[in-house]
Amino acid sequence: MNDDDELPPWIKILERGPLNVDRLTPERLKSEFEARIPALLESYGADNTLDGWRDVAIKLAITYHPALIVKRTLPKAKSNRPVEAGPWLNRQALLSRKRQLEANAKQQGLSTRVAAEAARQVHQEGARNEAAARLRLRGKDTSKIIKTPSAKRFQNLLTKKISFPESLKADDHFFDAFHLARKVAIKLPPAG
């Protein structure tokens, strides 16, 4: 089964890209809007009601309008650098690989001391992905590509306690801001 078969139909509609008014007739533009507007409502889980449209408008405003964008500053570590999700994610990948290797070694009756091998494998996968990303961006800005830690650094992650990063927690601030803005919008007097 293809992954595209499992996607909701509104995703394909909204992925069509921008409308080129110069190339579309008014009838064709109208038919595109007739397909895209219900898809937009469905993508936000909203109905074609006043409340549904209000919710879509608030979510779009909080996401895109400069006056209403909601941001969260990440807590800083003692070194005054932003706390990143990378070490936690790397450690989870390493622990997962270590458990997998331990289970395989136990089945085969081999030694279950596999931390170094797990670190090497996770490092190799990360280095391959990093190299592929650099190859795709050849000649462009590659400063956003995160450098893969060494195998030894991966192995050292097993001895550290790394808490779940704030940046990976659900966007509670966005959720709270949306509901506060919605309460304000509902109380606004009708235009007239």
What does this structure look like?
The protein is mainly alpha-helical and 192 residues long. It is built from 8 helices and no strands. The chain has 2 domains: 3-72, no CATH class; 86-164, no CATH class. The chain has helices spanning 3-6, 9-14, 26-43, 50-64, 86-108, 115-136, 151-157, 172-187. Helix 4 packs across helix 8, helix 5 (86-108) crosses helix 6 and helix 6 (115-136) crosses helix 7 (151-157). It is elongated.
Oligomer: single chain
Distance between the termini: 54 Å
Number of helical stretches of at least 4 residues: 8
Estimated radius of gyration: 24 Å
Number of domains: 2
Broad structural category = mainly alpha
Query: What general outline do the C-alpha atoms trace?
Result: elongated
Question: Order of helices and strands, N to C?
Answer: HHHHHHHH
Q: What is the share of helical residues?
A: 55-70%
Secondary structure: number of strands? 0
| Beta fraction | under 5%
Break the fold down into its secondary structure elements and pairings.
Blueprint: H1 3-6, H2 9-14, H3 26-43, H4 50-64, H5 86-108, H6 115-136, H7 151-157, H8 172-187
